[in-house]
Amino acid sequence: MTPETTSPGPGHLGEVARLFLKLGVIGFGGPAAHIALMRDEVVRRRRWVTDERFLDLLGMTNLVPGPNSTELAIHLGYTRAGWPGLLLGGSCFIVPAMLIVLTLAWLYVRFGATPTAVSALYGVIPVILAIVAQAMWGLARTAVKTPLLGGIGLAVLALSLAGVNELALLFGGGGLAVAVSGAGRRRAGVAALAAASGLPGLAFAQGLAAAAPAGLGTLALVFLKIGATLYGSGYVLLAFLRNDVVERLGWLTDRQLLDAIAVGQVSPGPVFTTATFIGFVLAGWTGAVVATVAIFLPSFVFVGLSHPLLPRVRGARGTAAFLDGVNVAALGLMAAVTWQLARGALTDWFAALLAVAAGALLVRTRVNSAWLVAAGAVAGVAYRGLLG
User: Fold this and answer.
1) How far is it, in rounded angstroms, from Cα 30 to Cα 69?
2) Which of 199, 243, 245, 248 could lock 195 by a disulfide, CB 3.0 to 4.6 Å apart?
């Protein structure tokens, strides 16, 4: 049977559910690893789609906000089994990671203040910073295609450190790239795409500027806004979370945010399940479910709206220019937040040494980042134990 010779339908729901439940359990290593696993399963082994179709679907995930690997799972579920497959593919990829993060969040809240847990987190945080920095460098080598794009990224870095709103910088970067690219008549279409997919969140973000209690309604709106406006790697989530839950709302400290990112990193599946951890810390089991649903809901909506448009947007100059600008702006945001967090986390020689060692291993080897995080925890416990 050749790829895509069967029409989408409910008869394929079982195989969609089985595949994405499996990937949700074994999907360690971040979005790039998830995408590689999906390609192996749906192109090489199951022959659901061709390589060309797979790349087209991956390209569509880059044109809308949200976690790329999760949206690719949703696209593939839709391709194989229609609308029920869209819902089932994404949900089955998300739920295993959500349950794992829920368990770790419960352990964190119950035992996080113990000396052993504090020592473990002391060793984990420098490793997480190294992982984010390495991911940022790898993304930059791909995203910075021209001096103009490099300049946009550096300008966003400087403006972010000066306190400019992250959504204004994100969409401003995309708009500037379109304006300079000479995309002509396609500019209006790109502007409409940007407005539909994220600019409404900018006004909402400004409304959250003052601290507010972590009620379920506010919690849902915060994570709904993030899910509806975040472009780029899952690591860009760190920048958005810090601006909202640390700086604007004062719900978490920088250290608690890094703990949340660490849990999202060591768990399989999408890094966006960091929202599950934060929701649990702030409002228990209900908060975890609300935050998780809110941050992933826009992805299902965007895929449902964009999937039928694939033939029309494939290769458009305007959309490509907008995406290029957004990507380098996202990298500028990542760099700003990484710098701010490193200043507070790398406070002694051992923490700095852990960060450097983790960075060197990431650059020179193909070690799984989850193993590095575990090694950081062991090193932290051992070092603090020696200090007595």
Assistant:
1) 9
2) 199
pLDDT digits (tens, 9 = 90+) for 154-206: 999 999 888 887 778 878 888 888 888 765 444 444 444 444 444 444 444 44
**Residue (of 220, 233, 232, 282) closest to 257 by Cα position:** 282
Helix (H) or strand (E) holding 215: none
Per-residue pLDDT tens over the stretch 288-331: 999 999 999 999 999 999 888 776 655 566 677 777 887 788 78
Report d(CA 106, CA 104) in Å as an integer.
5
Helix axes 254-266, 274-306, angle to 10 degrees: 60
**Cβ–Cβ under 8 Å, residues 208 and 167:** no
Q: DSSP secondary structure string, 316-328?
A: -HHHHHHHHHHHH
Three-state secondary-structure class, residue 30: coil
Residue 275 neighbours by CB distance under 10 Å: 31
How many C-beta atoms surround the C-beta of residue 305 within 10 A?
12
Q: What is the pTM of this model?
A: 0.72
What is the C-alpha to C-alpha distance for residues 317 and 324, in angstroms, rounded to an integer?
11
Q: Tokens standing for 11?
A: 């008869």
CB count in 10 Å sphere of residue 266: 19
Q: Which amino acid is at 238?
A: L
**Maximum alpha-carbon separation in the chain:** 68
Give the angle 304-306-311 at the CA atoms, nearest 5°.
130
Instruction: Give me 245's structure tokens.
Output: 């839950």
How far apart CA 332 and CA 5 sit, in angstroms, is: 43
Instruction: Retrieve residue 268's tokens.
Output: 């399989």
Instruction: Give yes or no for a contact between 230 and 65, defined as CB atoms under 8 angstroms apart.
Output: yes
